[in-house]
Design brief:
With 384 residues, the chain is of the alpha/beta class. It is built from 14 helices and eight strands.
């Protein structure tokens, strides 16, 4: 008999297929907010007119702009954005960009609510040992317009990197999730191909690790299997024709579905756990960590969850095949990296990566039990 608990998150609306500028204005009207602080992609701001279109649509309701959030959401940038949002007297944060910006705004919401104004203060609100400390709930909330498809805009978790230790740490509060997410495929055409497709594999990773989890349930499966099928169909279409907005929309909806299981309490596994370390310690892009690690993790786990892995292969259109082989071929077909060596991560680093991965939240929840760093090293060798 199934047992479990599904907690519905604080996201209120997902708007899809509407132009971002008009959808943001409509959200501000709905929420009754007057002072929007924009946290946006620097590249999008400087090299396209997309941010100007949003500023023009908002008019006097645009209270400020921050466009200096680097990859992996370092603490320093979170604090700089917090100061700017506080100075702007913002009553809403609007993000336009990738996962680092989305996560950055989640962290800014928490910092604003809890009076945090220096990098050391983040220690007071970050997750310790898998437990989020008591904190004041965010009041200034977020509306997200994602330009990549890793899915963070559907999560209440923010990953923030401590550059002094090269460790990505988690911040979490139920109200950190955006109040609304706006999926506009047109604004994603400016996203570099490698970034769009690799974050798409991140979304595939969400689906796959959820389907293969020991803790999944039918509600989560329904979203993960459909999301995986949509992503497996849409990503090659985007690669074949970057101007295909229908394909981009399908990929965005597949990503939305990919986050359903995680939001419903199903944990991720070793691909995500190791990926956190590779990103923070070796600056490997978020999506690339999934491109490299997911097939290796599937091979290592196959002895305990072969039946669940069959569901993965079937959803991707290859029933009866080994899921690791299907994923490997799919990732290669998109031109994505498939080895740690390509990221200049070599076996001499594996012991340190393994030790650090053991301290992440996801390694203990991997379907095949991981008891010590030597087992993580076995997975790393499969991805070398």
């Amino acid at each position: 008999m199934h047992q479990g608990r599904v907690v519905y998150g604080a996201i209120e609306e997902v708007v899809f297929g509407h132009p971002a500028a008009e959808a943001i204005v409509a959200q501000m009207d709905r929420l009754g907010t007057r002072r929007a602080f924009l946290m946006v992609s620097g590249t999008l701001n400087r090299q396209t007119d997309e941010i100007k279109k949003i500023q023009d649509a908002l008019g006097a309701r645009c209270a400020g702009l921050f466009d200096a959030m680097p990859a992996h959401t370092p603490r320093e940038a979170v604090i700089a954005a917090t100061h700017a949002a506080r100075a702007a007297d913002a009553d809403l944060i609007v993000t336009v960009g990738g996962g680092s910006i989305t996560d950055g705004a989640k962290a800014v919401q928490i910092c604003l609510a809890n009076g945090i104004d220096d990098i050391g203060g983040i220690d007071r609100v970050r997750v310790h040992g898998g437990v989020a400390p008591e904190m004041t709930a965010p009041v200034v909330r977020q509306v997200s317009v994602p330009t990549t498809i890793a899915g963070g805009e559907f999560s209440s978790i923010a990953g923030v990197t401590d550059r002094s230790t090269h460790v990505k740490q988690m911040l979490r509060h139920p109200l950190a999730v955006p109040r609304a997410t706006i999926l506009d495929p047109a604004i994603t055409v400016h996203t570099p191909e490698w970034l769009f497709l690799s974050t798409g594999i991140r979304a595939v990773d969400h689906c796959v690790e959820a389907i293969c989890s020991r803790e999944t349930h039918p509600y989560a499966d329904a979203q993960s299997v459909k999301g995986l099928a949509m992503l497996a169909d849409a990503l090659p279409r985007v690669k074949a024709d970057p101007s295909d907005l229908d394909a981009r929309m399908d990929a965005q909806i597949g990503t939305w579905l990919s986050m359903g299981a995680l939001a419903a309490g199903v944990p991720m596994g070793a691909s995500h756990g190791i990926g956190y370390v590779l990103g923070a310690a070796f600056d490997v892009p978020h999506g690339y960590t999934s491109c490299i690690m997911l097939p290796a993790v599937m091979r290592w786990n196959a002895s305990v969850n072969a039946e669940r892995q069959m569901i993965v292969a079937a959803a991707m259109g290859f029933p009866g095949h080994k899921a690791a082989d299907v994923l490997d071929a799919f990732i290669r077909s998109l031109g994505m990296p498939r080895s740690l060596a390509e990221m200049r991560v070599s076996p001499e680093h594996f012991d340190a990566i393994a030790e650090q991965a053991m301290r992440t939240n996801w390694i203990p929840r991997n379907p095949r039990k991981i008891d010590d760093p030597a087992q993580v090293r076995e997975i790393l060798l499969l991805a070398a």
